[in-house]
Amino acid sequence: PQGEHLQLLLRRSQEAKNCAYCPYSRFPVGAALLTAGGEIFSGCNVENACYNLGMCAERTAIQKAISEGHTSFRAMAIASDMRDHFIMPCGACRQVMREFGTDWDIYLTKADGTYIVKRVEELLPLSFGPEDLKK
């Protein structure tokens, strides 16, 4: 995405962050996922008192898109309140992203809106994907 489309994706990730349910970590995260068809699905992290039952923003956005029939993605923006570092997806989220290809963009942001762009293949090098099951 470029120009206004990119700004919309980044803004939607910030808006999703505001919906985060994170009473334990107090670390809100939002994600906005752009499908190949141009639709945007957002997600936020949702924690649980049984910690391992929580869900990351990135996986929430992907699952929302999948549940609506979308499996081809172009980009995702991820937002947090981190000021000095760019937000990075956890390993589980990287593997879920990888399930849907290695050739799409992930916009990693800081609280001030600055960002860097990484491809899924950069975030999870030497990865295992669906095509490996056929070998």
From TrEMBL:
One of its GO terms (cellular component) is cytosol. Substrate binds at N45, V46, E47, N48, A49, C50, Y51. Coiled coil: none annotated. Keywords: Hydrolase, Metal-binding, Zinc. It is an enzyme of class 3 (hydrolase). GO terms for molecular function: cytidine deaminase activity; identical protein binding; zinc ion binding. The keyword tRNA processing does not apply. SUPFAM superfamilies: Cytidine deaminase-like (SSF53927). It catalyses: cytidine + H2O + H(+) = uridine + NH4(+); 2'-deoxycytidine + H2O + H(+) = 2'-deoxyuridine + NH4(+). Its cofactor is Zn(2+). PROSITE patterns: CYT_DCMP_DEAMINASES_1, CYT_DCMP_DEAMINASES_2. Zn(2+) binds at C56, C90, C93. One of its GO terms (biological process) is nucleobase-containing small molecule metabolic process. Its EC number is 3.5.4.5. Residues 4-131 form the CMP/dCMP-type deaminase domain. The active site is at E58. Belongs to the cytidine and deoxycytidylate deaminase family. This enzyme scavenges exogenous and endogenous cytidine and 2'-deoxycytidine for UMP synthesis. This is Cytidine deaminase. It comes from Sula dactylatra (Masked booby). The gene is Cda.
